Structure prediction request, 439 residues.
Amino acid sequence: MSASIPASTSSTFLPLPPAKDIPVTFTASLKSWWAAGDKQGTASEERLLRRLPFFRPEQMTSLTNDSPVIAHRERVQLAAPKHFLNTLSIKSTNPSPTAPPPAVVLHGYGAGLGFFFRNFPALAQWAGHRGTDVFAVDWLGMGRSARVPFTIKAKRDDISGRVNEAESFFVDSLEEWRAKMGLEKMTLIGHSLGAYFSVAYALRYPTRVHKLILLSPAGVPHDPNNLTMPSRELTDEGDSRSTISGSHSAVAASTAGINQIREEQKAIKEKESRSRRLLTYLWEEGWSPFQVVRSTLFWGPMLVGKYSSRRFSGLTEDETRDMHDYILNITLAKGSGEYCISHILAPYAHARRPLVDRIAALKIPITFIYGEHDWMDPQGGLQSLENLREAGNYHSRMYNIPNAGHHVYLDNPTAVNELLVAELDDVGEQLYLFAASRS
Prediction:
């Protein structure tokens, strides 16, 4: 790299109170619930971002800096009143006239840009080296973006109309954001439902997308009996084995590797408990898990705490506590974009308009990435590659990430960061051939 990221300057920031411990008693849960709000949500996001040595809070934008990049967050206002997208901008301090298109990171269902705090350093290093920018955006109605009303006018039996309206809510606001930011083309890095919307955006605005990198994408397969199990998002544990030496690198997806993932999914599905079946039923029928948590009022922080402690057990104690506070404030915020789920996904968690049936219309490079212990069925990605190649698109590929579940970027950031930089540098094909030799 041409320049290095300097040591953290967070000690020069205005003091920020540490996140409270994850509540395990009713009293602690009540206090956490009472303190939640927009101010606390802002602080919870900033705690994660202050881990980035190149991040500058709003009140410090005038600081001199020798870093190849500077990051700041802002609310990008859209045309409609009170509509805005929460944005983290990681901008090169020495832009290159031959820079590749900027990368835009897009989170999954009910998450936010803070989930990628372990990936931003590698992406920033890439941006500084190439003289380009990286952005992370909260979808409209999610994360810390505007929580505006989400309504669908199409009738229940008008599947195409419902899907089109739901997709438009997200992709049209992203297009308005792109125009506001003055970006000609972007590489979209989307996770889960964010990957689904990234494909939907590319289909609607094909001239604006340079490449798609899809992390454990939702809504790909069309088989209603696929092995995708959304309830596992609430019950799976984080994979701490990503720290094992020599186990980090991605491997090119193979039929044998895909079958191994699906066999694990099948075994877990067969052992599905009654409570997990209930979670699956509620999810697949369009119930928002965040709505359920909000309805419990004072008990909500304890419920979120159980999820945070289990799912992010691979993080450090401080990281887990900060992630919990961040997730809690996102969850307790006013319901909005989360209500899209029943319009996008049908029962059994397959898409009403599966991407596997639409993605072949794209002529750009597309990379699929799944975790070794993912709960998304990778068969849809494999079939999508076949459809793309039959349509003449030979610039697409698929990887498996060892020691990672659905949140591949958080479970094994070493492997994912290496892969993201290679794909952004357009040397993904060489890496793919190398990875294929190890699979």
The longest helix spans residues 159-181. The first strand starts at residue 69 and ends at 77. Residues 6-11, 231-235, 240-247 have pLDDT under 50 and may be disordered.
